[in-house]
Amino acid sequence: VQLVESGGGLVQPGDSLRLSCAVSGLDLNYYAIGWFRQAPGKEREGVSCFNGRDGSTGYANSVKDRFIVFRGNAKDTVYLQVNSLKPEDTADYYCAARYRGLGCDIVPQNYNFWGQGTQVTVSS
């Protein structure tokens, strides 16, 4: 199983990015994908999730209405559209996978497979 994130970068406040999580070695139709982030000196926190079976999504309150998680047409990639970025969104962003029936969650301990992360820096 391999998860590869991409799309991070250095942006200004208010800008947008589209983060990608390319998944191989598992069938996304039976897994949930979570997005997490970790800022320097802070614990890893859940940001968003997507269930490949039922299409359900979830968001942390801090990003609701700014971030959108969705599955791409290629079906093996899950995206996180991050809009209206703020300096406090600066972190390494990770995607992770867990076997899941329906629904999803953003509890890091529940996820089994992790990517290497992509860095997002929001600064003026």
Explain this structure.
By secondary structure, this protein is mainly beta. Helices cover 0% and strands 49% of the residues. It has no helices and eleven strands. The protein has strands at 2-6, 9-11, 17-24, 31-38, 45-51, 57-59, 67-71, 77-82, 91-99, 113-114, 118-122. The strands form two sheets. Strands 2, 4, 5, 6, 9, 10 and 11 form a seven-stranded mixed beta sheet that branches. Strands 1-3-8-7 form a four-stranded antiparallel beta sheet, with no helix packed on it.
Order of H and E elements? EEEEEEEEEEE
Sheet with the most strands? 7 strands, mixed
Strand element count: 11
What is the overall silhouette?
A: globular
Q: Averaging pLDDT over every residue, what do you get?
A: 96
Strand content: over 45%
Structural class: mainly beta
Instruction: Give the termini separation.
Output: 37 Å
Q: Stretches where pLDDT falls below 50 for ≥5 residues?
A: none
Outline of the structure:
The chain is an all-beta fold and about 120 residues long.
Topology record:
Blueprint: E1 2-6, E2 9-11, E3 17-24, E4 31-38, E5 45-51, E6 57-59, E7 67-71, E8 77-82, E9 91-99, E10 113-114, E11 118-122
Parallel strand pairs: 2-11
Antiparallel strand pairs: 1-3, 3-8, 4-5, 4-9, 5-6, 7-8, 9-10, 9-11
Keywords:
124 residues, mainly beta, 4-stranded antiparallel β-sheet, single chain, 49% strand, 11 strands
